[in-house]
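Protocol step 4 of 6: structure prediction from sequence.
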Amino acid sequence: MTIKERYAGVLRYFEESGMEAETELIYRNPFELLVAVVLSAQCTDKRVNMVSRTLFARLPDAATMLSAGEEIIRGLIASISYPNAKARHLAGLAEILVNRFGGEVPSTREDLMALPGVGRKTANVILSVLHGEAAMAVDTHVFRVSARLGLTRGAKTPLATEVQLMRHIPESLVPKAHHWLILHGRRVCVARNPRCADCGLQDWCSYYGKKAGR
Protein backbone atom coordinates (compact mmCIF):
# COMPACT_ATOMS: atom_id res chain seq x y z
CA MET A 1 0.00 0.00 0.00
CA THR A 2 1.37 3.41 -0.92
CA ILE A 3 1.33 6.31 1.51
CA LYS A 4 -1.09 8.10 -0.83
CA GLU A 5 -3.49 5.15 -0.71
CA ARG A 6 -3.23 4.93 3.07
CA TYR A 7 -4.08 8.61 3.54
CA ALA A 8 -6.96 8.35 1.07
CA GLY A 9 -8.43 5.38 2.92
CA VAL A 10 -8.08 6.90 6.38
CA LEU A 11 -9.53 10.27 5.38
CA ARG A 12 -12.38 8.65 3.49
CA TYR A 13 -13.25 6.55 6.54
CA PHE A 14 -13.35 9.59 8.81
CA GLU A 15 -15.40 11.61 6.33
CA GLU A 16 -17.95 8.82 5.97
CA SER A 17 -18.05 7.95 9.69
CA GLY A 18 -19.96 11.06 10.66
CA MET A 19 -17.54 11.67 13.53
CA GLU A 20 -17.79 15.22 14.84
CA ALA A 21 -14.84 17.41 13.97
CA GLU A 22 -14.77 20.02 16.70
CA THR A 23 -13.11 20.58 20.03
CA GLU A 24 -14.68 19.09 23.15
CA LEU A 25 -13.60 22.12 25.17
CA ILE A 26 -16.46 24.42 26.11
CA TYR A 27 -15.85 28.08 25.29
CA ARG A 28 -17.81 31.19 24.30
CA ASN A 29 -15.12 33.44 22.87
CA PRO A 30 -11.45 33.44 21.79
CA PHE A 31 -10.15 34.29 25.27
CA GLU A 32 -11.97 31.36 26.85
CA LEU A 33 -10.71 28.97 24.18
CA LEU A 34 -7.13 30.14 24.63
CA VAL A 35 -7.27 29.70 28.40
CA ALA A 36 -8.99 26.32 28.10
CA VAL A 37 -6.35 25.01 25.69
CA VAL A 38 -3.56 26.16 28.01
CA LEU A 39 -5.28 24.38 30.89
CA SER A 40 -5.80 21.21 28.83
CA ALA A 41 -2.09 20.36 28.65
CA GLN A 42 -1.76 16.90 30.26
CA CYS A 43 -5.32 17.20 31.53
CA THR A 44 -8.63 15.88 30.24
CA ASP A 45 -11.08 18.18 28.47
CA LYS A 46 -13.75 16.98 30.90
CA ARG A 47 -11.77 18.26 33.88
CA VAL A 48 -10.96 21.53 32.12
CA ASN A 49 -14.63 22.10 31.33
CA MET A 50 -15.56 21.53 34.97
CA VAL A 51 -12.95 23.99 36.22
CA SER A 52 -13.34 26.62 33.52
CA ARG A 53 -17.02 27.11 34.30
CA THR A 54 -16.13 28.64 37.66
CA LEU A 55 -12.95 30.27 36.39
CA PHE A 56 -14.71 32.21 33.63
CA ALA A 57 -17.57 33.19 35.91
CA ARG A 58 -15.00 34.93 38.13
CA LEU A 59 -12.47 35.98 35.51
CA PRO A 60 -14.28 36.44 32.18
CA ASP A 61 -11.61 38.36 30.31
CA ALA A 62 -7.91 39.19 30.22
CA ALA A 63 -8.23 42.43 32.16
CA THR A 64 -10.09 40.78 35.03
CA MET A 65 -7.63 37.90 35.09
CA LEU A 66 -4.71 40.32 35.17
CA SER A 67 -6.24 42.21 38.10
CA ALA A 68 -6.92 39.00 40.01
CA GLY A 69 -3.31 37.86 39.96
CA GLU A 70 -1.58 34.52 40.07
CA GLU A 71 -2.67 33.46 43.57
CA ILE A 72 -6.38 33.82 42.87
CA ILE A 73 -6.01 32.10 39.51
CA ARG A 74 -4.19 29.19 41.16
CA GLY A 75 -7.00 28.76 43.67
CA LEU A 76 -9.58 28.62 40.90
CA ILE A 77 -7.69 25.97 38.91
CA ALA A 78 -6.38 23.95 41.85
CA SER A 79 -7.79 20.65 40.59
CA ILE A 80 -6.13 21.00 37.20
CA SER A 81 -2.80 19.27 36.56
CA TYR A 82 0.24 21.48 37.27
CA PRO A 83 -1.81 24.36 38.76
CA ASN A 84 1.23 26.38 39.85
CA ALA A 85 2.80 26.52 36.41
CA LYS A 86 -0.52 27.07 34.67
CA ALA A 87 -1.53 29.86 37.04
CA ARG A 88 1.79 31.55 36.32
CA HIS A 89 1.23 31.13 32.59
CA LEU A 90 -2.29 32.52 32.73
CA ALA A 91 -1.22 35.54 34.78
CA GLY A 92 1.55 36.30 32.32
CA LEU A 93 -0.69 35.61 29.36
CA ALA A 94 -3.33 38.01 30.64
CA GLU A 95 -0.71 40.73 31.16
CA ILE A 96 0.56 40.48 27.58
CA LEU A 97 -2.94 40.32 26.12
CA VAL A 98 -3.91 43.52 27.95
CA ASN A 99 -0.71 45.49 27.47
CA ARG A 100 0.21 44.41 23.95
CA PHE A 101 -2.97 43.29 22.25
CA GLY A 102 -5.68 45.42 23.85
CA GLY A 103 -7.14 42.43 25.64
CA GLU A 104 -7.79 40.54 22.39
CA VAL A 105 -6.40 37.16 21.39
CA PRO A 106 -3.92 37.60 18.51
CA SER A 107 -4.47 35.80 15.23
CA THR A 108 -0.97 34.88 14.07
CA ARG A 109 1.16 31.94 15.16
CA GLU A 110 4.09 34.21 16.00
CA ASP A 111 2.04 36.45 18.29
CA LEU A 112 0.27 33.53 19.92
CA MET A 113 3.55 31.77 20.68
CA ALA A 114 4.80 34.92 22.40
CA LEU A 115 2.24 34.25 25.15
CA PRO A 116 3.29 32.28 28.25
CA GLY A 117 2.16 28.67 28.12
CA VAL A 118 1.44 28.81 24.40
CA GLY A 119 3.59 26.56 22.24
CA ARG A 120 3.16 25.59 18.61
CA LYS A 121 0.46 23.02 19.40
CA THR A 122 -1.70 25.49 21.31
CA ALA A 123 -1.19 28.18 18.69
CA ASN A 124 -2.24 25.76 15.96
CA VAL A 125 -5.40 24.85 17.89
CA ILE A 126 -6.38 28.53 18.06
CA LEU A 127 -5.64 29.11 14.37
CA SER A 128 -7.55 26.01 13.34
CA VAL A 129 -10.58 26.26 15.63
CA LEU A 130 -11.10 30.03 15.56
CA HIS A 131 -9.97 30.86 12.06
CA GLY A 132 -10.34 27.60 10.13
CA GLU A 133 -6.70 27.73 9.07
CA ALA A 134 -4.85 24.66 7.84
CA ALA A 135 -2.88 24.33 11.06
CA MET A 136 -2.25 20.82 12.41
CA ALA A 137 -1.96 20.75 16.20
CA VAL A 138 -0.05 17.64 17.24
CA ASP A 139 -0.81 16.44 20.75
CA THR A 140 -0.04 13.00 22.19
CA HIS A 141 -3.10 11.47 20.52
CA VAL A 142 -2.32 12.83 17.06
CA PHE A 143 1.32 11.79 17.45
CA ARG A 144 0.43 8.24 18.52
CA VAL A 145 -2.43 7.59 16.09
CA SER A 146 -0.55 8.97 13.10
CA ALA A 147 2.41 6.69 13.80
CA ARG A 148 0.26 3.59 14.39
CA LEU A 149 -1.78 4.10 11.26
CA GLY A 150 1.36 4.60 9.23
CA LEU A 151 0.52 8.16 8.26
CA THR A 152 3.91 9.16 9.60
CA ARG A 153 7.17 7.29 9.27
CA GLY A 154 10.07 7.80 11.63
CA ALA A 155 8.66 11.03 13.05
CA LYS A 156 10.38 11.53 16.40
CA THR A 157 8.91 14.91 17.34
CA PRO A 158 5.52 16.63 17.14
CA LEU A 159 6.91 19.03 14.53
CA ALA A 160 8.09 16.15 12.35
CA THR A 161 4.63 14.61 12.65
CA GLU A 162 3.01 17.92 11.74
CA VAL A 163 5.21 18.31 8.66
CA GLN A 164 4.41 14.82 7.37
CA LEU A 165 0.67 15.17 7.97
CA MET A 166 0.56 18.57 6.29
CA ARG A 167 2.36 17.14 3.29
CA HIS A 168 -0.41 14.63 2.58
CA ILE A 169 -3.69 15.99 4.00
CA PRO A 170 -5.56 18.46 1.77
CA GLU A 171 -5.61 21.92 3.34
CA SER A 172 -9.40 21.97 3.38
CA LEU A 173 -9.45 18.86 5.58
CA VAL A 174 -6.66 19.76 8.01
CA PRO A 175 -8.92 21.41 10.65
CA LYS A 176 -11.22 18.37 10.60
CA ALA A 177 -8.41 15.82 10.46
CA HIS A 178 -6.89 17.28 13.63
CA HIS A 179 -10.08 16.52 15.56
CA TRP A 180 -10.63 13.15 13.89
CA LEU A 181 -7.19 11.92 14.94
CA ILE A 182 -7.60 13.24 18.49
CA LEU A 183 -11.02 11.69 19.01
CA HIS A 184 -9.95 8.39 17.45
CA GLY A 185 -7.03 8.34 19.87
CA ARG A 186 -9.27 9.01 22.85
CA ARG A 187 -12.00 6.55 21.97
CA VAL A 188 -10.41 3.70 20.01
CA CYS A 189 -6.66 3.93 19.44
CA VAL A 190 -5.89 4.47 23.12
CA ALA A 191 -2.34 4.47 24.43
CA ARG A 192 -2.55 1.12 26.19
CA ASN A 193 -4.38 -1.82 24.66
CA PRO A 194 -5.81 -0.10 21.58
CA ARG A 195 -9.27 -1.38 20.66
CA CYS A 196 -8.26 -2.76 17.27
CA ALA A 197 -11.22 -5.16 17.13
CA ASP A 198 -13.61 -2.19 17.24
CA CYS A 199 -11.67 -0.07 14.74
CA GLY A 200 -12.94 0.67 11.26
CA LEU A 201 -9.45 1.49 10.04
CA GLN A 202 -8.05 -2.04 10.11
CA ASP A 203 -7.58 -2.16 6.33
CA TRP A 204 -5.48 0.99 6.38
CA CYS A 205 -3.60 0.61 9.66
CA SER A 206 0.07 -0.28 9.68
CA TYR A 207 -0.03 -1.30 13.36
CA TYR A 208 -2.97 -3.67 12.84
CA GLY A 209 -1.45 -5.05 9.68
CA LYS A 210 1.67 -6.08 11.56
CA LYS A 211 -0.41 -7.68 14.32
CA ALA A 212 -2.41 -9.59 11.72
CA GLY A 213 0.76 -10.67 9.90
CA ARG A 214 0.00 -8.74 6.75
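Step 5 (inspection) to follow. The domain at 30-131 is CATH 1.10.340.30 (Endonuclease III; domain 1).
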